[in-house]
Design goal:
The complex is a heterodimer of chains A (412) and B (203).
Chain A: E1 3-8, H1 15-25, E2 28-33, E3 47-49, H2 55-68, E4 73-76, H3 82-92, H4 99-106, H5 108-117, E5 125-129, H6 134-138, E6 145-149, E7 159-161, H7 164-178, H8 181-187, E8 193-198, E9 203-212, E10 215-224, E11 237-240, H9 246-263, E12 268-277, E13 280-287, E14 300-302, E15 305-306, H10 307-315, E16 324-325, E17 329-335, E18 341-347, H11 349-353, E19 358-363, E20 370-371, E21 382-388, H12 391-403, E22 406-411
Parallel strand pairs in A: 1-2, 1-4, 2-3
Antiparallel strand pairs in A: 5-8, 6-7, 6-8, 9-10, 9-12, 11-17, 12-13, 14-15, 14-16, 17-21, 18-20, 18-22, 19-21
Helix pairs in contact in A: 1-10, 2-3, 4-5
Chain B: E1 2-4, E2 9-11, H1 13-25, E3 32-39, E4 46-52, E5 62-65, E6 70-73, H2 75-80, E7 84-90, E8 95-100, H3 115-132, E9 137-145, E10 148-155, H4 163-178, E11 184-187
Parallel strand pairs in B: 1-5, 2-7, 3-6, 10-11
Antiparallel strand pairs in B: 3-4, 5-6, 7-8, 9-10
Helix pairs in contact in B: 3-4
Classes of the chains: A alpha+beta (412), B alpha/beta (203).
Chain lengths: 412, 203
């Protein structure tokens, strides 16, 4: 039985979905994580403790482990472990995006540089160190602009500024985020720099795909129907199939395919975010991983396959091209956190579940825990899932269900 | 379609009156009720009970006479419903038919006894709980049915982002090694109700 090494940060939303996919495929699993499993002593080969910062050291640990427990694939569920999955896969000659490509894609400044040099249409951008004087930087740039950490995901720390004053305030706020221990622990030296780029107007859209031997297979194009014009860029609703005209969707796929190829992302899942403004399509980022949070639950493929199963199939060299997304429309709402404080109560859950078309609801922050909204926040309040005949219907269902949910927070 | 007289399922007087009342409201003088097991999982058995027209009966359906109406079932549901009873319950919050089915008794409703359950419980106490206690967690055996172990996770394990890893990479492996006749492990924990998970998920 082939063995796959699944890499999860201890805070991953994705463990259950990947483990279920592996179970369905009948493959043996080792879980690598940045904490020691409580029962590790009793189940040799089942888990591996790995750090994601020291890639060389952890990669060597995996190579040693593979001598006793041969690995057929290494798959990282999220951002943090992707560089390690790439490095260890290279060392063991397993199917994965190359390390260099992963490094380019994870660092938003490197990605911009690389794509801009190759002639891809890019917004103006510059990288600055956080110890520079923000007012001086503001005097040299155009507005509106967007300030972004180089390597955080889900819009954490991304702020739009329309004036020099807003720019300085945004800078200070992001510096506060990047100085947090958990952030430094995750992205290391990338926490000392910022990407500043032109604000791109337009509607946001995402593309989920798997690149196989350099060929992109698009699994879904997902609309983000909420206007995301700042100052923060909270993701809420994702709906597929996209309602953009067919030609625009083809252009989206073409742009992502060319960008992935140019970055060298050749074998593995990708998740791209783009802006569409009239005829102009701009890539915001392309991550060498699959969609985050619990959002993958809306992507199901016939017959009865999950996104995670397709990803594992690809990494194990098993057929994965024949599975088509289930007909109909599906969507997810990442429930926004309305205020900072302590989560006291979430009511209306049963009423939300009763909205026809809603097929699931998960609250992922326990009552009594601290909640922090964007741009500082790093957790979702929860997820609402819907399925219906059309994307419009899915969007309406999600909004109707969300309107029934009331969140009570004791504000800090 | 086959007609039989001995129904494998019983309606209480109240449930029967409700069926006849609904049929009367629809102007149906010879009503038929389809009962279907829509989910046979013992974790969450579900049933669908609907008034149907003659055209909605299928060739393979089994049809049973009750007092005043017909009960229609597909063969699989008929097997699973043998000995079940249907009641009507009403409260301030909700009202509806309630099915009591001994064949699909919800997990945890049967007494925890027998040598297999004893061995599983012993393994949990000896190996699993001392381990998960390091993370403030504990695991309770809920039932062993058809060689499947049903467990509930509490404390730091309830709602923990890594609970599925602990289950599949730890508990399941230990149990299958120590009690080889076990064929599966099911977690019946309501993880969303956990208030002190050891790890909570983050972006």
């Amino acid at each position: 039985m082939p063995r796959v090494l699944l890499l999860f940060a201890r805070t991953s939303y994705r463990a259950e979905a990947f483990l279920e996919a592996a179970r369905r495929l009948g493959v043996d699993v080792t879980v690598g994580s940045n904490h020691r499993q409580a029962l590790a002593d009793f189940a040799p080969g089942a888990t591996l403790t790995l750090g994601f910062r020291d890639v060389a050291r952890s990669s060597a640990t995996i190579v040693r482990f593979a001598a006793d427990y041969p690995l057929a694939a290494i798959v990282a569920a999220g951002d943090d472990f992707t560089p390690l999955a790439a490095a260890a896969s290279e060392a063991l000659e397993l199917t994965h995006h190359p390390s260099q490509a992963v490094r380019r894609a994870r660092n938003k400044a490197l990605m911009r540089e690389r794509l801009s040099e190759a002639g891809f249409s890019s917004p103006w951008f510059r990288t600055t160190r956080l110890d520079e004087e923000p007012a001086a930087v503001a005097s040299k740039i155009e507005f509106p602009c967007v300030l972004k950490p180089l390597a955080l995901s889900a819009s954490r720390g991304v702020i739009r500024a329309d004036t020099p004053e807003q720019f300085v305030r945004a800078w200070q706020r992001i510096r506060g985020i990047l100085e947090q221990d958990d952030v430094v622990g995750r992205i290391g030296r990338l926490a000392s720099e910022l990407l500043i780029e032109a604000y791109l107007p337009g509607r946001e859209v995402a593309l989920e795909g798997i690149v196989s031997a350099g060929e992109l297979r698009t699994l879904a194009v997902l609309d983000k129907p909420d206007l995301m014009d700042g100052p923060f860029f909270e993701e809420t609703i994702l709906v597929t199939p996209s309602r953009f005209p067919e030609q625009v969707q083809e252009d989206i796929v073409s742009l992502v395919s060319r960008c992935a190829a140019h970055l060298g992302l050749s074998d593995g899942p990708i998740h791209a975010e783009l802006r569409v403004d009239a005829d102009r399509i701009s890539l915001l980022e392309i991550a060498p991983r699959s969609i985050g949070g619990r959002c993958s639950r809306i992507l199901r493929f016939e017959p009865d396959k999950s996104l995670e199963e397709l990803i594992l199939r690809h990494s194990l060299g098993m057929p994965h091209d024949d599975f088509l997304r289930e007909p109909g429309a599906a969507g997810v709402m990442m429930l926004p956190i309305p205020a900072a404080g302590v989560l006291l109560e979430v009511v209306g859950l049963e009423a939300a579940l009763e909205v026809p078309g809603i097929e699931g609801l998960e609250i992922t922050i326990p009552l009594g825990h601290t909640v922090v909204p964007l741009p500082e926040g790093n957790r979702y309040l929860g997820f609402l899932f819907a399925r219906a005949e059309t994307p419009d219907h899915v969007e309406n269902v999600l909004r109707a269900a969300h309107a029934r949910i009331k969140v009570r927070i004791e504000e800090a | 379609m086959s007609d039989t007289t001995q129904s494998p399922i019983k309606f209480t007087d109240l449930a029967r009156d409700v069926v006849l009342r609904f049929a009367d409201m629809g102007g149906d003088s010879s009503p038929a009720v389809r009962i279907q097991v829509s989910s046979p999982s013992p974790l969450d058995p579900r049933y669908e009970i609907t008034l149907i027209d003659d055209q909605e009966k299928c060739e393979e359906d089994l049809v049973f006479g009750q007092q005043g109406f017909e009960v229609v079932m597909d063969p699989e549901s008929a097997k699973l419903l043998d000995g079940a009873s249907v009641d009507w319950v009403e409260s301030l919050q909700q009202s509806g038919f309630k099915v009591e089915n001994p064949n699909l008794a919800p997990i945890g409703s049967k007494p925890l006894e027998g040598p297999l359950a004893d061995r599983v419980r012993q393994v949990i106490e000896q190996y699993v709980n001392p381990g998960v206690a390091q993370h403030g967690g504990h695991v309770t055996l809920v039932e062993v049915r058809d060689k499947i172990v049903y467990l509930q996770m509490g404390g730091g394990c309830q709602g923990c982002g890594m609970a599925s890893v602990t289950l599949s990479q730890g508990i399941e492996r230990i149990l299958k090694e120590q009690v080889p006749e076990i064929v599966g492990i099911e977690d019946v924990t309501n993880h969303s109700a956990g208030d002190s998970p050891y790890f909570t998920s983050e972006k």
